[in-house]
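Reply to dn_fold:

You asked what the input looked like. This is it:
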Amino acid sequence: MTLRSPLAPVRFPDLPAIDGLRLAVAASGLKYRNRHDLLLMTLSETTNVAGVFTQSDTAAAPVIWSRNVLASGRAGAILTNAGNANAFTGECGQDAVHQTSKALARALNISADQILLASTGVIGEPLDSAKLSTYFPQLVANQGASWEQAAEAILTTDTFPKGAHITCEINGVSVNICGIAKGSGMIAPNMATMLGYIATDATLPADVLQTLLTTATDQSFNAITVDSDTSTNDTVFLIATGRANAPMITSADDPKLHGFRDALTKLMVDLATKIVRDGEGASKFITISVSGADSDHQARHVGLAIANSPLVKTAIAGEDANWGRIVM
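and this is what came back:
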């Protein structure tokens, strides 16, 4: 791992446990040495899940698998490996996904179609599922990891773990939202080389979660750029365990969700900001605000034209206040 980014926060925030969600980490040695590189998130039976994925036509095998699993809005576990993206691996990659999900399903005593998968790391190298499954008994037996340990287990070229926590109320009942993310290179709007896991103890159906997640993603992870390149493995999951005794909300437009929507977006913007602050070689953090646009789409187009300009980036990096480059 390289030196910690100069834009990194002082420390990892305090994140409380989410009732109905258990975390476990292990070191498989798949690529890295002397660090955790496997993360298992085990979900209670009351949990609903939503997800957003890369928009690349070259989506990795775990992305394709997880898209299909999420069609039901339910899952029993999420497994993430760091060091190998299992992307551009053809039939070998698809076989690795199937073998991994079946082995983990046996260890958890659930069906394989309840397993969500995410991978991050080197593209184009076959993933040896047997090297992962060796550690499944250990993961299942030791599900007491912290959020910080979970955040560290999914890192690749990142220089620091990324986490965020916020509380809000739904109809007078307090709920928690916790999130972790990874990403530092191949970061551009419409997702990027990033993974994100956001969990709440609120009671929300999968279709409401999906609407909330898609909207908040547009305002956070899809509104950042480091190097203008998107990726094959981008995945963000939103998990609702339903353990806070908050009332079930069946519509994303319900006024009772106003506070939750704002809190979710704020947390995701926090995580997205930390990804940019950890951009490979980054020494500056810039926010572009656009006013006077006729629509959000127009404002985004103008903002990204500036943010993705190499001329603007070099001017900022060199601390040369040449506003002509922005006008250009």
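Residues 147 and 286 are 28 Å apart (CA to CA).
Hope that clears it up.
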